[in-house]
Amino acid sequence: MATTWSDDVDIALRREAMAWLALRTNDGLDALTTEEIKEFRFRGQPMPLMDPQRGIRKPAVLDAALSFRTVYRPEGADRPYEDSRGEDGLIRYKYRGTDAQHPENRALRAAMDQRLPLIWFFGVAPGVYHAAFPVFIVGEHEAGLEFLVDAVAGGALQPDSQLEDMLKRYVTVETRRRLHQPIFRAAVMHAYGTRCAVCALGHSPLLDAAHLVPDRDEAGVAAVRNGLALCKIHHAALDSYILGIRPDLVVQIREDLLHEIDGPMLKHGLQDLHGGRLMVVPSARRDRPDKDLLEAAYERFHAAG
User: Based on the domain organization, do 199 and 293 belong to the same domain?
Assistant: First the structure.
């Protein structure tokens, strides 16, 4: 029978796991496959960070859960457990089953009681997960059979916490992003093979997930069909109506810029792309840019010109 680790070892495990994830995911920008997640080792030994069979991972040597996951489902498909965000900004993570005393539910409750940071693996494609960390269980709603999750780092941070140094780096304006934004990015990057749709640049830190129709608009769904993987130059060009994409996936550059002389970046990075098709398009038809959303985005580009 496994011996339960001390609090100090538990904290060391969480610290090392999150540092490893930060390194492997570009501080949460990139998704990981289930095989990549299995590569984590703690003190020389394999330590699975995610349970492939269960929603909640609690190693036998810990008193509390280490991670939990939300499985991937294509847009429009129901999930076995429908996790959602409430108006208070907290995530509702459903119980395992309906028994509040199920061992997995008790494991999350123990993490809540001890104010321990956890990892949330959110499925963005089959076998591919976005890792949100650290997150905290900050409450429980027994009638709704759910826990309340604060996915904004620092929500449960205590001034005297042994984890304070580890968490301080996350308690920034950047961590106040809506959770769907990094999840959207991970899904878009996976669909486009982490390459710019316009120029095929393949360096993740230089890439963004751009919306065709802004998410503040009614039609601006947070789905891959409303997104493009773009390098930062082409993302800025799209947002400023310098670059447009026709519904047939042909790139257009604003007319006045086609006649401007301003060095190699303008010539090769924008002008030479005019009239060419997107270099990278998702292989899965469901992930390709939606024609109606492309049409709406192109109309705005055309009107701005």
Answer: yes
Same domain? For 165 and 237 the reply is no
pLDDT digits (tens, 9 = 90+) for 44-59: 999 999 988 889 999 9
First-to-last alpha carbon distance for the chain, in angstroms, is 70
For residue range 67-104, list pLDDT tens digits in order.
999 888 877 655 444 555 555 667 888 888 889 899 99
What is the domain range of residue 183?
Answer: 7-189
Residue 1 lies inside a defined structural domain of this protein: no
* Bond into 134 cis (ω within 30): yes
100 and 48 assigned to the same domain: yes
The CA distance from 160 to 200, in Å, is 47
Predicted local distance difference test score (pLDDT) of residue 87: 56
Domain co-membership, 116 together with 220:
no
What pLDDT is attached to residue 172?
38
Beta strands in 162-279 (DSSP E): 207-211, 227-231, 243-245, 251-253
C-alpha torsion 103→108→114→115, nearest 10: 180
Domain of 100, CATH number, reads 2.30.280
The number of distinct structural domains making up the chain is: 2
> Which pLDDT tens digit goes with each residue over 98-112?
898 999 999 999 999
Mean pLDDT of 169-195: 71
Please give the backbone phi and psi of residue 263, each rounded to the nearest 5 degrees, phi first. 100, 175
Quote the distance between the C-alpha of residue 56 and its chain's center.
19
- Within 8 A by CB and 6+ apart from 120, the residues are 67, 68, 69, 70, 91, 131, 132, 133, 135, 149, 151
Domain termination site, one of 137, 160, 189: 189
pLDDT-based confidence at 216, cuts 50/70/90? low
CA Rg value for the chain:
22
